[in-house]
Amino acid sequence: MRVLGIESSCDETGIAIYDEQQGLLSHALYSQVKLHADYGGVVPELASRDHVRKIVPLIREALAQADTTIEQLDGIAYTKGPGLIGALLVGACVGRSLAFAWNKPAVGVHHMEGHLLAPMLEDEAPEFPFIALLVSGGHSMLVDVKGIGQYEVLGESIDDAAGEAFDKTAKLMGLDYPGGPRLSKLAAKGRAVDYKFPRPMTDRPGLDFSFSGLKTFAANTIAAQPDDEQTRADIALAFEEAVVDTLMIKCRRALKQTGYKRLVIAGGVSANQRLRAELASMMQQQGGKVFYPRGEFCTDNGAMIAFAGLQRLKAGEREDLAVKGQPRWPL
Ligand code: KG4
Ligand code: ZN
């Protein structure tokens, strides 16, 4: 089975072709980061328009790269939600229409399922069951994954997502959008100064997160300290350590609760090197293993949608003829 995947839920247009036997045949990505940079965040209407401009050329590119004809495709998968409704509808409209025109089955994929299965695009793929820590700009959740489609959300953020906290704190530090990777780069120059950042919700049982307090704590710390580059780097480091520590404590708890030895981290924040290193060393100590996708498949991409879509199509799932996007959609 060979599937064309389309991702357009936010500010990246991603197209890929995944083959059940041969693996990933191609993937093409266009990031709108520069378009939104002047506004300090994603402007939904501009995002939709840019998806419209890029989606068809990227589909052509992915087909050519994979040396695949339309006849060789067995289905089309597109991100149906959650995300920005205008952006989602571009992918859904193109995906559903092409499937109709080409007489192929179509399937709408949950964006977070895409992230969750992204480590399976790698040679060393995790076996089921595992705990998945999904940390992106829109979501933070811990999921018990027993198999394809067997997901139990064990905990999630009650306010800001981890990536959102990174982005908002970066903004407070005068860093450009998207702030997460920039803040992390600044933190690499930081010295260990104990600013007493909290580890939210770790002092009580449960697996939910809360990150908005960390952003507020960062704002107060920035206001109370001298405004120079080194101090900002020190605060960035303390903030990053607090987020990573908090995520680590909750992962340890989820693993203990389930008895699992495999941990998957995915979503944009899983590109964070400190998070990867800390979780890898924690898992090594516990005799377990951590899995994550390569850097380019941590953030939004078409490959994860093609892969997840293929699993869904194989299981017999089909989209009806209506073009639907679901901006809010529980996993
Ligand atoms: O998964 P993603 O591309 O889009 C969403 O579905 O939200 O995640 C983007 C998020 C942004 O908040 C971005 O700042 C964050 O991931 N991010 C990082 C890093 N790289 C991306 N946060 C911390 N450290 C990084 N290295
Ligand atoms: Zn995402």
Automatic annotation (TrEMBL):
Coiled coil: none annotated. Its cofactor is Fe(2+). Substrate binds at L134, V135, S136, G137, G138, D167, G180, N272. GO terms for cellular component: cytoplasm. Residues 24-307 form the Gcp-like domain. It comes from the Bacteria. Binds 1 Fe(2+) ion per subunit. It is found in: Cytoplasm. Fe cation binds at H111, H115, D300. Belongs to the KAE1 / TsaD family. This is tRNA N6-adenosine threonylcarbamoyltransferase. It comes from Shewanella mangrovi.
